[in-house]
Design a protein that fits this description.
This protein has 413 residues and is α/β, with parallel strands linked by helices. It is 42% helix and 25% strand. The strands form four sheets. The chain has a six-stranded mixed β-sheet with strand order 2-1-3-8-7-6, with helices on both faces.
Length: 413
């Protein structure tokens, strides 16, 4: 099994001017063909640091893939550094010069002298023509380590990767294995709780392996298997998936590309139900998510807070009503009120009481109450956090949608 390292080159990547989507895309493609990716590195257009990074990559990988630094400007120095670290001369390929001139002429343009820099290639390298741009790609292969140098322009890189890099890798390393993964999506449970319940599987599993990734309001469990085919990999994944499902039960809401919104949207449609919501601390995020879930099944969103709106919905003042002064009672009144006002089957309410002295963006102090009702049955949840930062808003809105999901599937205890 070959292992690879990706080296993304460009100071603009380090400065945050451009997001490195190329490396993420290539990582996924390498997984699909059965190549292990152990390292991804980003380095600026600095010759000393580029030499250091590439020398280290060559010392620990079978395949090194670079992106960027193949243009005509003086800071495009990938060619020079690759020649240096592989101890090769840098030569001008005259055929490439002619090809580039013809390409410019066909477009009615005159090629400037600096474009000839793109015809500089490490001696002995295999040239890979780039039909989508002027920067040629090339491969340096010493029999043991292969270096693929690709342009940084995404559509050029992707074409070259799929049409040149992948076939080359398959042939050289006789790739017959595939790496397949399945992601189980978990809601209503934090990362530490998930780890406590399935940590033994993470420690003891070899093929497949199990990994956990936490998001606000959601935990992803990734099961990864290597085998001779996708079908065989799925056979390896299945028993471990069943073991995890037996433990986490209804907390698993979906797999792979499914989202809470897409799952709830399908449930609303299949059950022929509609929903409306009231929210204050989440600031409209819950309404946006419900709209995304199914715009035809989401009838109304009330986004605000304060006594006037509460009075309008419930008919009671917060200053003189015991019911609305108790948040667990108020959230029930709000859920039913928005249901009645909109004529929806379900009313979903989120009411938060932030601690104004806590300015944290994640897990800020306070309390948040969530309630869903159909007028007869009511299900509520309470949390000892309430903040207006994006992580808290995402977490609470996801918890609210997950509560709706549980009610729709009859798991509302």
């Amino acid at each position: 099994m070959a292992n690879a390292e990706i080296v993304a080159i460009g100071s603009e990547l380090l400065l945050g001017q451009i997001v490195d989507t190329n490396s993420a895309w290539m990582a996924k493609k390498l997984t699909e063909v059965g190549v292990d990716l152990y390292f991804k590195t980003v380095v600026g257009d600095n010759p000393d640091r580029m030499r250091e990074v590439l020398a280290r990559a060559l010392s620990r990988a079978d395949v090194v893939i670079t992106s960027g630094g193949l243009g005509p400007t003086k800071d495009d120095i990938t060619r020079e550094i690759i020649a240096d670290v592989t101890k090769r001369k840098l030569i001008t390929d005259q055929n490439l010069v002619v090809q580039m001139k013809n390409r410019f002429q066909k477009r009615g343009l005159i090629m400037t002298k600096n474009n000839e820099r793109q015809a500089l290639i490490p001696e002995g390298a295999t040239i890979v023509n780039n039909p989508n741009g002027t920067a040629p790609s090339f491969i340096v292969d010493d029999g043991y380590i292969s270096i693929f140098c690709l342009p940084g322009v995404p559509f050029e890189l992707k074409w070259l990767f799929e049409n040149e890099v992948v076939p080359y890798l398959r042939k050289k390393f006789n790739l017959s294995e595939v790496i397949l993964y399945k992601v189980l999506k978990v809601a209503g449970m934090g990362e530490s709780n998930v780890d406590e319940l399935i940590g033994h599987l993470m420690e003891t599993s070899n093929n497949p392996t199990v990994g956990v990734l936490a998001h606000p309001g959601q935990v992803d469990i990734r099961i990864t298997a290597k085998s001779s085919s996708s079908k065989e990999a799925l056979k390896l994944i299945s028993p471990l998936e069943n073991s995890i499902r037996d433990v986490l039960k209804e907390h698993i809401f979906g797999v792979d590309n499914q989202t809470l919104e897409s799952v709830v949207g399908e449930l609303l449609l299949s059950s022929d139900k509609t929903v409306s919501c009231y929210e204050d601390v989440t600031g409209g995020l819950l309404s946006n998510k419900l709209m995304k879930a199914n715009p035809e099944r989401f009838l109304q969103g009330v986004v605000c807070g304060g006594e006037k709106m509460i009075q309008k919905l419930t008919g009671e003042f917060t200053t003189n009503s015991d019911k609305v002064n108790k948040p667990e009672s108020l959230v029930k009144l709000l859920a039913n009120a928005v249901r009645l006002e909109s004529g929806s089957d379900y009313g979903l309410a989120v009411h938060g009481i932030p601690d104004k002295s806590d300015l944290a963006q994640n897990l800020a102090r306070g309390e948040t109450h969530i309630c869903i009702t159909d007028g007869e049955n009511t299900t509520s949840r309470a949390y000892n956090m309430s903040g207006r930062g994006n992580p808290d808003r995402n977490r609470i809105s996801s918890n609210a949608i997950d509560l709706l999901r549980l009610v729709l599937v009859g798991k509302n205890a």
